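Study this chain:
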Amino acid sequence: MTDPEQPDPEPPTQPAGSFTASSTDTDVPNDGTWEVGGVSEEARAAAHEAAAQAGLPVGVWLDSVVAKAAPQEMGAVSTETIVAALDALGDRIAHTEATTRQTITPLHDRLDELSQQLVEFEQMAELADSLDETDAGSDTDDVNQEFPGPEAPKTARS
């Protein structure tokens, strides 16, 4: 039991570079204190000042700061980073589409030219076939009798 006439004992002094957050700092009951070694006096003073400016106990302020910073340190990506990456991807896609269009348009035009030539050749072949059929149907023997051509030379093989 403590003697009511005796003053409360002084809290233990912290080694330089350590930080203690008690349950009164965080408004969350816990079973003890949390000590973080290696924290400079300047950093502790800055944390206390920032927490006071935010109107928060140091523990609550530290929780919010760590909660915001830890995901980024662990590789989480912010919305702004995702939006920037999507914008960059959209730009790359637009550039690729433009390059593809520049490459394909001349090929498309050349294929159109070749297709037109093929249609013309097919029409000429159809015309030639129809002329051959017309010629085959005429009586060429009568023409040959009326206009005999030169006779073939006779060979000595007979």
Q: What stands out?
A: Residues 19-73 form one domain.
